[in-house]
Write a structure and sequence with these properties.
The chain has 320 residues and is of the alpha/beta class. Helices cover 32% and strands 31% of the residues. 40% of the residues are buried. The chain starts with 5 loop residues before the first strand and ends with a strand.
Length: 320
Amino acid sequence: MTENNEYIISDEITADWTEVAITVNAEDIDRAGDIAQMVVPYGIYIEDYSNLEEEAMEIAHIDLIDEDLLAKDRTKGIIHVYINPEENPLEAVGFLRERYTAENIWNEIETYGCAQEDWINNWKKYFKPIKVGKKILIHPIWIEDYDAEGRVVLDIEPGLAFGTGTHETTRLCMQLIEKYLKEGDTMLDMGCGSGILSVAGLLLGASSAVGVDIDALAVKTAIENTKLNKVSERFTGICGNLTEKVSGKFNLVAANIVADIVILLSKDAPLFMNEDSTYIISGIIDNREEDVLNNILDKFEVIERLEEKGWVAMALKLRK
């Protein structure tokens, strides 16, 4: 470790994927993880051993812990980000260093070559079933022994564009969908990404869902994930511009992206809403909330706001 922020680049990166390992102080792990999500939201896991004993008892109900784990540095956490060959790892490192410096987060960044299969295996090790809201359980399909506790089970597996539901923005959005979606509603998922919100809506009782994204890989992944969850017959995946490709009105419209895109999509969202439709937005970091509201409150009124770890999600209605 050095006293100043630094990054170390390995001699040669020859593998398909690049792993970026970011070491930060344990008290900064949540903020640093949120910033890392901005680089590649589809491939990240966090090593945080600061509450090792408590978490081992809570999750596994054991107090016998491997000696290697007990030897881990409890004062530091490591965030692992995986970047595909089409991305620029040095650009990602530069972005992370700039953001961490702005947030006064001490960090040390290293990069390594990492084959895609290693990324998938590492990701699997750290991903367990997750309860979302009161009705949903996100279930990694490689875990066979689990108790759904009567919840709707949303099956997932890792993929290049797969939103896992582990990040606050997705979970907050799903909580609002759970609350405001009614049985038989139609749903529009703007910027659908992996399709996880559409899948959740369909499992919760939506009669149909349309997912639209400008990324063809995202739409392909969304379709695959609806098949995995046996709801594909009620899902339509569309690649292209929202206003050019989508028509009709929907009972619930969702957008879980980033603040600037939420602002942009909100200009067109009313075209797809009835007077009683619900509009759910997420992916908004708290210091951008005011910007978003200043740009949308002429058309919408906020009926509920949720916040977790500096991320904000809202449910809105059209102004009468």
